[in-house]
Amino acid sequence: MLKILTVPAFQDNYLWLIHDGVHAAVVDPGDAVPILSALAENRLALAAILLTHHHADHVGGVPALLQRFPVPVFGPRGENIPQITHPLGEGNRVTVPGIGVQLSVLDVPGHTSGHIAYHAREQDWLFCGDTLFAGGCGRLFEGTPDQMAESLEKLAGLPEQTQIFCAHEYTLANLRFANEVEPDNMALKARIEREQAKRDRGEPTVPSTVGIEKETNPFLRFREQHIADRLIAAGHLSSREPIAVFAALRGWKNSYR
Ligand code: ZN
Ligand code: FE
Fold first, then answer.
1. Helical ranges in the chain per DSSP H
2. Is 12 a catalytic residue?
């Protein structure tokens, strides 16, 4: 029976440990220190490292982990991460050493140009780094709006019950923006209350699910006419072409406080 441990790091990152009680694989270890403590506390041996993209808050702990555990490193073939032993891209399937979980790899460019996500179909788990967030999406550092929109629609096409293990706790800020975009979305209002209550209790809002995101995340809902209407009314949009809507939404979020 596989389980997932949530390991908070830095200000608002989540590092994920997938384990079977003996061995573990870590997703995006930006910092080795909290991972080494979580492994020790739970008496787990590291068996693999999985990376989604090259940013320091996702790969910074890799060298220190490899010193303690010389394990295989899986990661995007389209990005320059020197420690990768198993480069991956769209359509690749991986059986993770030690824990045996089967993952399918999806190319999800946009935040970075080679960003990948890992989907565990049997468990309904998705590890998507900084592509899809609870209530939002990653910034476009290297990719274009049409790449990001296509990547997000690919993730939205996974089964509704798929649990989304993204890499940051940005949910409340994302949902505050979502509410600005869709003030009449009742599912969104209910979600804001639920997520606020979790934060008040000191709990993570992650994982969410594909079903919840499709109902409340404006970056998966940019084809809805009323979202284009709202962007036009707020002065952020001149064309109703869907990718223009997506780009305007992302641009508005960048400057929203
Ligand atoms: Zn990033
Ligand atoms: Fe990040």
1. 32-41, 56-59, 62-68, 145-156, 171-181, 186-200, 210-216, 225-233, 242-255
2. no
Q: What angle do CA 91, 155, 104 make, to 5 degrees?
A: 30
Residue-wise pLDDT tens digits, 162-186: 999 999 999 999 999 999 999 999 9
CA end-to-end span of the chain: 43
| Token pair belonging to 180 | 């600005």
Neighbours of 229 (CB within 10 A): 12
Short-list 98, 93, 89, 103, CA closest to 70? 98
Of the listed ligands, the closest to the CA of 131 is: 1
> In angstroms, rounded to a whole number, what is the distance separating the alpha carbons of residues 196 and 113?
33
Q: How far apart are CA 36 and CA 248, in angstroms?
A: 42
Cα 52 to ligand 2 centroid, rounded to whole Å:
10
HSE (CB half, 13 Å, CA atoms) of 72? 12
Q: Which sequence spans correspond to the domains of the chain?
A: 3-255
Amino acid at 96: V
Does the pTM surpass 0.85? The reply is: yes
81-107: pLDDT as tens digits: 999 999 999 999 999 999 999 999 999
Q: How far is the CA of 189 from the centre of ligand 1 (A)?
A: 28
CATH of domain 3-255: 3.60.15.10
Residue 120 phi/psi, 5-degree rounding, is -100, 100
